[in-house]
Amino acid sequence: MAVGGDDQSECVDCIPVQGNVVMFKNWLRKKKTAQVDLTLNEVYLALHAAQHHHSFLEVAIDGSDVVYQSMILSLDPQERTILIDELFPRDFVGLPGQCVHCSIRQPQGRKLQFESVIVEGYRHAERPLYVMAMPAAVEESQRRGSYRLPVGGELEVKSSFVGPDDRSYRARLRNLSAGGACIEVDSAAATSWRSGNTLKALVFEFAGISVGCDLAVRNISENNRGVALIGGEFSELPVETLRALERSIMRVQRGRARVLGDWS
Q1: What is the Cα 122 distance to its own chain's centre?
Q2: Which of 80, 103, 123, 245 could be cross-linked to 134 through a Cys-Cys bond (beta carbons 3.0 to 4.6 Å apart)?
Q3: Range of 194's domain?
C-alpha cells in the first residue's frame, strides 16, 4: 500500500510539470515564429558584407542633389539601426528625421540601394556620427557606385604591379575612384589576361597619398594604338587609405568644377 501510495504521489506531482513543459514548448514555438524575419536577415547580411569589406556608402539627402560618402561602422539588428561614419565632404550636418537614399557599390558594377532615415547624430572623437534606421529592404541595380575621376595630362599617375604571370609591369592610370581604377598597359603584355585575374602589389601615388593594394580585374579592352585598358576593383586596401583617397578625389573634383565655373 505504501509503495502504491508513493507511485500515485509521483504521478500527481508529474502532472503540473508535464503541463508546464507543454505550455513552454508551445510558447517557445510561437516566440520563434514571431522572431524569424527573413527580410531582416537578408538586409542584415547584405549590409554586414558591406561593412566587412569596408565598402563606401553613398548618401543622398532627400531634397539635395549632392551625394555624400560614408562607411558603415556597426549594425544592430535587434534595434534595427545602422551606425555610419561622418559624411564627406563635411559641409553638411545630418538632422534626425531626414530621409536619405543610400547605395553601396558591389562587384561587377552592381549597386545595393535602400532608403532610410536619420534617427540621431552625435559626436565621437571630434567627428559627427549618425544612427540610421535599418531599411525594410535593399534593392540591387547595375549602376556604377563610385565617381570615376579621369586622370592624365597634368594629373598623370604612374603605377607598377605584378601581373598574373608574376612579372613586374608599369602602367598609367586612366581614371580612379575610391573603389577601383582603370589602368593603361601595353596590349602585348595583357594578351593572356582575363576578367577574374588579380594584379598584385599595385602601387601608385595620387595627390600625396601612397596607395598599395591588389586590383581584381573586371574588364579588359584594347584600342587601335596597341594599348589595353584594364578596369578593376581594389582589394585589401586599408580603411585609412580608402578614406584619404576618397577625400583627395573629391578635392580634385571640386577644384575642376570651380575652374570650369570660372571659365563658363
Answers
A1: 22
A2: 80
A3: 149-263
| Amino acid at site 178 | A
Question: Does one domain contain both 133 and 153?
Answer: no
Which one is predicted more confidently, 238 or 7?
238
Distance CA 229, CA 225 (A): 11
Sequence-distant (≥ 6) Cβ neighbours of residue 50 within 8 angstroms: 57, 72, 104, 112
pLDDT of the residue at 34: 46
pLDDT of residue 30 exceeding 50: yes
Q: Which of 178, 206, 195 is nearest to 230 (CA)?
A: 195
Instruction: Tell me 85's DSSP state.
Output: -
Q: In this predicted structure, what is the pLDDT of residue 33? A: 47
Coil, helix or strand for 61?
A: strand
- Whole-number Cα distances in Å, 136 to 114, 116, 195: 8, 9, 34
The gap from C-alpha 161 to its chain's centroid, in whole angstroms, comes to: 25
Indicate whether 47 belongs to any domain.
yes
Residue 227: other Cβ atoms inside 10 A: 15
Q: Bridge-partner residues for 203, per DSSP?
A: 160, 212
Q: Let me know if residue 31 belongs to a domain.
A: no
